[in-house]
Secreted protein
Amino acid sequence: MTYKIKSLIYFSCFVLASLIYYMVDQHDQFQEQMANKSYVEANFHDANSLEQPKEDQEEVQP
């Protein structure tokens, strides 16, 4: 193999290793942030799924 091909392979391996290290570090930071913060659960209701059936609503509304 020529020097250029070896250099390209080594550089590609370095970039790949750096990318993997960055992704693992970001994942660890995200997990740490999730563990440190408290989040509030919110219940969202769809406008179509109200307590009254849809037929009753149409009868009440003109």
